[in-house]
Amino acid sequence: MNSGTFFKNYGIADPVPPYFQRLQTMITQGEWREAAENINKLELAWRQVVPRIQFSEERDEINNFRHSLARLKGYVAAEDTGGALAALNELEETWVDLGK
User: Fold this and answer.
1) If one looks up domain 4-97 in CATH, what number appears?
2) How many Å apart are CA 21 and CA 34, to the nearest integer?
3) What is the largest CA-CA distance in the chain?
4) Are 7 and 51 spatial neighbours (Cβ–Cβ below 8 Å)?
5) Domain boundaries, the chain
6) pTM greater than the 0.85 cutoff
7) Nearest to 22 by CA among 33, 35, 36, 8
C-alpha cells in the first residue's frame, strides 16, 4: 500500500501538483475561463495517475479526489472565489495524503 507515493508522480508527462499553484493564481485573479481550462487539464493528468495507484490506495481517497475536483469545477463555473479556493485546498490536501 505504500507504493502510491511513488506511482502518483513517477513517469507522468503532465504531473498533477503544478496545477494547484496555477489554479490558485487564476482563481484569485478572477481568470475563470483559464481556470476552467486548467481544471480540465488537471482532470486529464489525474486520469493518468489513477490506473497507477488504484491498487495501492484506498478507494475512498481516490473518490475524495474525484469529488473535490467536481466541487472545484462547480465553484469555478459559478465564479465563486471562496468556494473555489476551499475546494482547491481540499483537493491539494487529498493529493498530499495519497500514499500515506
Assistant:
1) 1.20.120
2) 13
3) 39
4) no
5) 4-97
6) no
7) 35
